[in-house]
Structures are given as C-alpha cells and as structure tokens.
Amino acid sequence: MERFLDEHRDLKAEVYGKLEQHRDLLLPTLEGISKEEHRELVRKILRLLVAEGYRPMHFYQHDLQKYYYLGELMALVDLSLTVKMGVQYSLWGGSIVNLGSERHKKQYLEDVDQFRLPGAFAMTELQHGSNVAALQTEAVLDIAADEWVITTPDDGAIKWWIGNAAEDGQMATVFARLKVPSPDGSGAIDDHGVHAFLVPLRDAAGNTASGVEIRDCGYKVGLQGVDNGSLKFTGVRIPRDNLLDRFGTVERGGQYRSPFSASRRFAATLGELTGGRVGLCCSSLAVLKGAVTVAVRYGATRQQFGPPGAPEVAVLDYSSQQAKLMPLLASAYALHAATRFLVGQYAEAKRTKEEDLVTDVHSLSAGLKAYITNFTANALNVCRECCGGHGYAAVNRFGAWRSDHDIFQTFEGDNTVLLQQVAGLLLKKYQERFSGTPMQATYAYLRQMALDSLPANPLASHETSPRHLRDPAFLSRALKYRVARLLHTVAARLRKHTKRLGAFGAWNKCLGHLLALARAHIESITYARMSAALDTCSDGDCRKALKAMADVFALGCIQGDVLWRNDDYIAAEKVKAIVKLQEDLCRELRGIAVPLVDSFAIPDHILRSPIGQSSYTRDPYAEYLRSIGWTPS
Amino acid sequence: MERFLDEHRDLKAEVYGKLEQHRDLLLPTLEGISKEEHRELVRKILRLLVAEGYRPMHFYQHDLQKYYYLGELMALVDLSLTVKMGVQYSLWGGSIVNLGSERHKKQYLEDVDQFRLPGAFAMTELQHGSNVAALQTEAVLDIAADEWVITTPDDGAIKWWIGNAAEDGQMATVFARLKVPSPDGSGAIDDHGVHAFLVPLRDAAGNTASGVEIRDCGYKVGLQGVDNGSLKFTGVRIPRDNLLDRFGTVERGGQYRSPFSASRRFAATLGELTGGRVGLCCSSLAVLKGAVTVAVRYGATRQQFGPPGAPEVAVLDYSSQQAKLMPLLASAYALHAATRFLVGQYAEAKRTKEEDLVTDVHSLSAGLKAYITNFTANALNVCRECCGGHGYAAVNRFGAWRSDHDIFQTFEGDNTVLLQQVAGLLLKKYQERFSGTPMQATYAYLRQMALDSLPANPLASHETSPRHLRDPAFLSRALKYRVARLLHTVAARLRKHTKRLGAFGAWNKCLGHLLALARAHIESITYARMSAALDTCSDGDCRKALKAMADVFALGCIQGDVLWRNDDYIAAEKVKAIVKLQEDLCRELRGIAVPLVDSFAIPDHILRSPIGQSSYTRDPYAEYLRSIGWTPS
Lengths: 633, 633
Hints:
The first copy, chain A, has helices at 2-5, 9-20, 35-51, 56-62, 64-75, 79-99, 102-113, 262-271, 274-301, 319-352, 355-386, 398-405, 415-431, 441-451, 466-469, 472-509, 511-535, 540-559, 572-598, 604-607, 622-627; strands spanning 119-122, 138-142, 147-151, 159-162, 171-181, 189-200, 212-216, 229-233, 236-239, 249-250, 256-257. Chain A is an alpha+beta fold. In chain A, the strands form 3 sheets. In chain A, strands 1, 2, 3, 5, 6 and 9 form a 6-stranded mixed beta sheet that branches. Chain A has a 3-stranded antiparallel beta sheet with strand order 4-8-7, with no helix packed on it. A two-stranded antiparallel ribbon of chain A has the order 10-11.
C-alpha cells in the first residue's frame, strides 16, 4: 500500500531523516512564539534544505513531480514553510519562469533557488482579489528615461497579503496596469491592462527601496511563519526591461507589441497560476492524511462507555464515529489518486504545451484545489471533534492545522470563484458537443451522456443488491450521469434566465446549481482516478481495501445528493440501500483503518501529535503525559 | 427589533460603557501575547467587574436571566473571560450551590463571588470525560481521623483540563468515588460511586497543598486566557465535612446515607450540570451574532466583479453568498428566541423544582447546547470564507472566535453524547405515550402525532404555493411530523435490533438515526419558539422581517433533509418549490440584512473587527487601514 501511495519514498526518507537530526527545528507546538520567531524558524528550515543541496527552483523547471512531492513533505513539518516555499518558488520564481524572457531567468533564477534573492508575488490589492482585471496599480512608461513608473493611485490599491514582503523580499513581481503614451501623439495614455513588473523592494541589508512603503499585515488566523506585507508605491522607477514580457512587450519609445489579443493575454497570464494550485492540492492532501492518521489512531485507542458489566469499547467502534471518520479516510485515498493524476497531467501539459491539455489541466487544478481544500477544512473540524478534549490540546496539532490551512480555501483563487471556472468550461464543452471538436478524456463522457437519452433505466434504478451497488460500472455511470444531468439542466436554466436578466444576472441566479455541477464533476473525476489507480494494484488485500474505499467515496457522493429526489435514475429504495451499504462498508473499513493510516507512513517526529503516535497501541497516553510534563521526556 | 432581542439593554449599556473607559483591556487581537499575559488580562477584567459591584454568584442564585445575559455580553469581549467566569461561577460556585449544604454555601460563596476564592471543577480525568460514572479518583474515609483521603490511583485518573487549576484555583470540587469501610466489619470497602468533595489546591500565596501535584495543560487550540491544569492527588486529607452532601452524606463513623438510589443520585448530581450548558448556549449565540454582523456588513461593502461595463457589485448580491449567509442570519434570530426560552425555563425549573420541568429543561439544555455550538462552529467557517482574505486577518476576529469556540462542542458534554440523551428522553416519552402520564408542552405533540396516523395528506403533500409553504401551520406541522416519523421508525428499528444485538448494540447501530431525531426535535422547538416570539411583536416591519427569518429557518430544516425521499409527506415537486422559495426569501432578506445585524447592537469597541465596523458605509476600509498602520489611529 505504501508503494501505491508514494512514488518518491527515497526522497521522503532522506528529507525527513535530515530533519530528524535537527529536532530543535521541530517544535512540539508553535503556540506561544511570536510571529517574528516563527518566521525565523521557517527561514532556518528553508536555508537548511538549500544547504543540504535541494534546489526547488530547479525541480520546478525540470522535475515537477519531485517539486510537488517536496512541498507535500514540508506541509506536515509546518504549513508556513510550505507556503513560504510556494511564495518563493511557485509564485515569485514561477512568475519569472512563466511570464519572463530568457534574460530574466538567467539573471535571477539561481539566486531565487538558493534563497539568496527572496521575492514576492504582488498581485492582490486591498480592494481587489479575485477580480484581477480590475487591479489599480499603475506602471506608466516614462519614454525619455526609458523607465516604468510604478504608482499606487489610492489606498484601495495598496498591495495586500503579499507573502515574503513584510521582512524578506528583495524584489517583487508587481501586477500593474501597463500604460504608455498613445503613439498617436495626442498625449493620451493607452492602458494595455494588467502586466507583471519586477520591482526592487529592499536591499540585502533590509533597507527599503526609494518610493516603496511596506507595512507588516500583522497576525493572521494562522501561517504566522509567513511574512505577509502590504506595499504602496509612489513613483518607483524601474528599467523598461523589468517588464516580464513573455506575453506582451514594449519597445524603446513606447511601442506595445503582443502576439495575443488582450483577453487571450490576460488568460495566458492567469493560466500560469495553475502551478500554485497544484501545490495547494498536494499540501492540503498532506494535512488531510495527517489529521485522519491522528483521529483514527486515537479513536482506536480511546475507550468510553460500553455494554453494562463489560469493558468499555473503543470510540471508533461507535457507528457515529465510523460514519464521520471512514469517509474521510476513503476520501484521503481517492483524493490522493486524483492529485497524483493532476500532478502528472500538469507536468505533461508543461512539457507538451498542447493547448487542449493546458485548458483541461487549468480547470482540473482549479476544481481540485477548491474541492480538496474545502474537504480538508471540514475534515479538520470533524477530526478535532472526534478526538474530544484531547484534540483541543495545541500539541496534538489540529488547531494549528486548521488555522494555517483555512486560507487555502481563499488564496490562489477563491474556491467559489474557481468552481465557477470549472462550471464555465463544462458549459463551453457542452455547447461544443456536436461541433465535432475532439475532446480531452476528462470531458469525453459529456458527449456520450448528451447522446444517450437522459431517462433512466427503470430496472437498474430500482436494483438494490450490494453486488450491483458496488459495481464500478454502476458507480461510474451514476456519477457521470449526475454531472450530465446538472449540466443539461443548468444550461437550460441559463438560456431561460438570460432573456430577462442578461448573462450576468442569469449566471448569478444559477450560482448554486453551477457550484453543484462543478463539485459533481470533480467527484466524478476523482472516482475515475481512484478506480484507475486501484486497477494497477496487484496485491489482493490492498486491492480489496482500495475497492472498499473507492466504493465509500462514490456511494458517499451519491448518497448525499438531493438530486435523486427529482430524478428517476436512482429510486428511493435504492438510496436507502446505499445508506445501509455505506454503514456496512464503514464498519468493514474500521477493521483495517489503523493499517490504512499507517500506510501514509508519516514518521512520529514529523506528525508530532502525542495522541496520534505510531506507538499508541503499547501505551496510548504515554507520549501525551510526557508532553504535559507528567513523566520525564 | 432591539427590544425584541434584548431584555437587559440597561445592563448592556452599563457594562459595555464601563469597558469603554478601559480600552487598554480591549486589545485588537490576542495573537502574539503569551498564555500567561492573556490569563492576566482576563483576571483584570474579571476583577474590574467585581470592583464595579457586579456579583455573578449572587445573580446565579437570585437572578438567573441577568447572570446569563452578563455571560453573553462578556463572550464578545473575550471568550476566555466568559469561560473563566463559567468555571468560577457556574461550575465551581455552582457545585457548592447545587451539591452542597447550607454550611458550605455560607462558608464559601461570598469569597467565590468576589473572586477572592478562585476555584475549580475537577471532574474530567485523562481517560474519562463523557463516562463520568467510570471516574477513577478515590475518596476513602479514614474513620479514625474522620477525614477523606483523596488519591489518584494511576496516571489515567489524573484530573485533566481543569479550568482555574493551573494558576488561580485555591480549591476544587473534586469528583471521586466515595469509599467507606463496609459496616459489616469484614474489612471490605464499599464503593458508593462518584461524589463531589472540596479539596484545597493551593493557598492564596500560590503554594501548592501537600499531596497535590499540578501541571499546566499548556497551550490549547484557543481559550489561552483560561488556566487549564491537570491534578494528581496522593493521599490528600480533607475533613469529612468537605463532602458536598446534598444528595448523599456520610456520618461520623462511616455510615452512608442518601435519600436516593445510586442511579437516581448520579442523575441528580449530573443534572446540576444543566446550568453550565445554558450559559454555553448564550455565549455561543453571542459569537454567532458577532460573526454574522461582520460577514453581512463586509459583504454589503466589498465589491467584486459585475456585469460588463457596469460598476462592480457587492458580494452580498451574489446568490451564492446569500445562500450561505442569510440562513445564518435567520438562524441567529431563531436560536436567540430558543435560547431566551431555555433561560426562562431553566429559571422556572430552579424556582419550582417541578420534576417534569427539570427533566424537560435538562434535555432541552443538552440538545440546544449541542445544536447551537455545532451551528456556530460551522457558521464561523462560512463567515470567514465569505470575508475572503481579509477575514483571515487576526484583527477581524474570526480566527480567535473559531479557535476559542471550537471546544464548546465538546466541553460540558460532548455534543454527540448530549444529542443521544435528547433522543433517549424522546424515546422514553414515546413509550409513555399511552400511559396517561401528563406531558410537558415540549413533548405534547408526540402524543398527537402518535395518535394521528402517519400517512400524509396526499393533497397537501403536493401543494407548492408560497402562501402554503410559508403558512406557520404547514411549517410547524412538517417539522413535528419529521420528529414523529424519525421517532416512530427508530423505535421500531431499536426493537428489531435489540433481539440480536442487545440494547447497547442496537443503540450503536441506530446512532445516526438517533442523532437525526435529536436534531429534528431541537429544530422543531426552535421554530416554535421563534414563532411564539414573533407573535409578540407589534411593529409591522419587524414582524415581517421576523416572519421571513422564521420561514428561512424552517424551510432550511425541511429542504436539507433527505427524509422526504422515502416519504410521501412532502412530494418531490414540493421540495423543489421550497428550494426556489428559499432562494427568493434569501434575496429578500439580503435587502434588510444590514439593519437586521445592526439590531444586534454590538458596539464597535466590543466587536473590534475593522472590516465589520458600524461606520463601514462611510469608508469601508478606513478602520482596517488604520489597524495595519497605513493611516494614523
């Protein structure tokens, strides 16, 4: 099973082994230290990795799988560390790689890689996050000086939440409206929309650059180890060459040239954010695995109540606890398969630059990021609650995980906005369904569904045997049917409402429907990837366990959906049978839950949760008692 | 509307006014200070209240409504403060009031009230939380010395999470197994089960009492301002009189006497925990109101995207945002009505000691505590996410609220356990339904439902007009029907499974069903209280708003329930009509959402959330910019 889960076991053993020699960097809890101390701790670990020869920027450019795996590994060390690395490499370095020219890469990337040139990705403003096109910061070309003049026109345009900006960042990729004097000589200024510019923030000694003002964004809900800052520019001058000009450039004298239309260029620029989202899927997944590991081990240990006169039973033997935790365990495996698939597809898209694949991966990364981060956020609440009072001790880590992870739902694309992108692409594909355009595998079933008539098979819709309900053909088809039906109906509703409300109004009216569609699509893909992954497993017991988890995931998606109320595809008694089967499968999984979380193979010194140690079976509370000072450590 | 919400407006103005003169005690955020500093801050505010003449212990004994209202007011100042006060007055003082004799009250309560005698409530042990009957700490009578000898038999019985124990507590009410030498002279020891004993912990100078060991429980997920400690007793001797002996006493020489059977006595002892739960409902509700206030004001301010060429729209104008926030707003009002009802009933039960009412209130407090705290915990996640990145700034308070409030779901009764108590009582009432015993109002409808035949009215089940769907008769009946149906079916399932699995096994198998039943019952009561409250409102606009919120609450309960899939009571097209109506009502509420949260009347200096200030309409980001240091404060 470990082999099923991990493709880079050597890297894991190596990196975690090195950290084991630096126990002083792995504090039991980060509560009680200041944000400055936390930031310094993060810097130390990052510098240690660099000193040990790891080159994240190099991985990012040449071995994406290794890059993301390293991020996943660091997530359980400290989410602040993963995010700091994400800022430095995916965002700051990534903006140079993806938006810059060769000269930019040559000049900066080696220093970025070694953390000698910490940098920031200054996109978000106080008043604009999701709506990037409406950013207000300006870069106006001074033709005579051949320089850009960067200005924050008002306080609403102060760059906000910029990671690496409060303390470390020496430069930033600043997103600003590119403005040049109109070539018609009228004196007017042409606005070419949002572009990226390299702007120095401070020198290596920490002196702020002229015209730049920086404020620390202060304490956040979590991630105190990341130095988020806000930035205000007053006539900051940078060379013309500092425009990251892969998608649009300005010649000496002010001539603007781009191979793309404005909207295409904007899409291409934002498209490069995909990489960051892939990373968020990996680290969110790591947290999910960590939390489920602790909750399952504790649940198998902790005893409370029992039949009269008999010993107490483990809390994991309660069906209510199983109903909460087993779907989380199953989903961790399923989402693992989906995430590994995404990483592979993303690497492939970067390699081939094949346009359909790029579009597909962009949408998948948006959808999976929204789905996983929301799933993990909810799972953390459930896991903490399942560990009762002891789950509330800071040393057991649920609090830090939740506080740090929370913003994963918002940054690098607000989840509600991202899911709308997924729905938007599905609708586009749906409209193209008869046009003869070839479709990527991910969407091919839409065609099939559109060609199939929607009405259900009355025989199958009433069939309730576990054999049928666990048949991959049924599960797969039901999940796809759900997407097709949601798509079909929302397309009709949008058409109808657009007449009266216009496109924006109709979209707004159907938002709930659109979000449900996007989630259903991600669930369908996740199940497909889990099925594909389990088909590659040769060991009988592992396969059986993976199959049970795939079923729990898929049945959970079907069971929880109110769609069937208005639909004959799955009749009422079939839903009832699914609920019962799900209970049975959760009870079955409970029996193997501990080995299944052990397979995540998170070493104790990384998990650092006294109630979730791998040694819990011998003496469940030993480590916890030590951590509170009742027994010597 | 403020009149509808607040019965103690004078107290609010007075207390919050006093705090306004002590701005140094109201920090913008408590991140970045140590737990010791936070505890000192909490002590200062508590001492200030006492110095200003507030007497919580006196309120607790003579004016319960005022007592709980004060707790609700303090919740938005700092949840650590509310919990510290809950420990000192509801738990420590409350244990003396409820479990002690007159001599105990005379000796201690005045000092407790003035916080001159901080104390603890030492029930939970490392290995036992919910299962109080299995506590292991022992109190053995030494007849010769006429003293109790308190001992922690092993590390699993260390008292854990004890509030006020780590730093302040001078005494504790310790729950321990009362053991006396058997009167038969055999030398055997009789175990009379768990009783409460007054045990000194440290003197006023802070020196720990002989035989007592104390460890700080360390950082928690939140509530750092409460000094939770763990306690180990080694042969600690206390006078025989220190047994809190209202329900069972031991005479000189060791004779045990109690007017109750062991199980009745245990129930009576635990029954006294009710008061703490009432307090948790009040403070959880306060947090819900605070969070909804911030999210609604910010949502009405924040603009993002919009129709092409038109100005951006407020995010609260998106239907997805309305679907998230309007039900929270409606529920805050409905749960307010239910909580005020609970406080009134509890006061009545304490006054009359009428047995049925006591039982009823015990169950209602358990159910409402579980329901509200779970609801608020989820609401905090939603509200933070609705406020996007700015919701993640510590100053805007969602993080602290969530971290502090989280444990409300676990302490003073784990929610999953409490809901089972509610379900248990419902089943008991159900079984008594033909026995002729008079029923409390809360349960009376069960009789009616049992007498009504369950099958639905085929005409009504298909009726979809908004007029019908918003008819209180329909809503009330549907919510009650749901309880009756869940009760009826779970009773049948329990009967069936008990044959094969025994009572414990059958209960375990039906847990999901039982929890759904308990929640449905609480929702039905909540709607009934909201309806009753709105009937007392004379102002037309207020009434209309309250009616809309009552409808959103009730329709939300009905809409989200999968029950109707297997039930003819509400047909598929009716569910669909409810979904549509709910969207319409949420859009309607959006129009008055701001005045509705303004009615919660939380002063800015108490809410302390820069993005949720009452002045937001004038300059939405002004206070936030100040808080980060961009403009002078």
